[in-house]
Amino acid sequence: MRKNLENPAVWGDPAALSLDELRSRWADIWGKVPGQRIGRSMLEKSLEYRLWEIETGGLSAEQQTELSRHISAYKRSANHFDENRSDIKPGTRLVRNWKGERHSVTVIADGYEYKNKKYFSLSEIASQITGTRWNGWLFFGIKKIKKTGSDA
Q1: How far is CA 124 from the centre of its chain?
Q2: pTM for this one?
Q3: Same domain flag for 27 and 42
Q4: What are the backbone angles phi and psi of residue 117, rounded to the nearest 5°?
Q5: 79/130 same-domain check
Q6: What are the pLDDT digits (tens) for 81-107?
Q7: How many CB atoms lie within 10 A of CB 4?
Q8: CA nearest neighbour of 23 among 12, 15, 31, 34
């Protein structure tokens, strides 16, 4: 029998459950059976998040939009989060000449600015400039290509 989803307090502490009880509780609240390879820690965190979401209404519209942007960027490039490293300080200007045209990108606190538009990935900008997929860090000369064999 499903517990009342409107009252998350009746679900109790996920950490106090056996693994079988946790998997059953997770299936009740998410409406599907969790994958066999999902570990206890992920089940607990996922269940806690879902209970919080039910209790509070979840993410704000702004937070959901931001999350959707990150998901889209990740789908385009699995290295999306690696690209937004903090070792390049905001205010840094990256410049690249491409086919006779100079392109300037400014690093900002939460991404990059190019032609007065905010981007979350240098790869997005490099692809816009070239019309093909690029690793943005390579395109702007920040990441060197590793040499192998006799080139090393």
Answers
A1: 15
A2: 0.43
A3: yes
A4: -125, 140
A5: yes
A6: 655 555 788 899 999 999 999 999 999
A7: 10
A8: 34
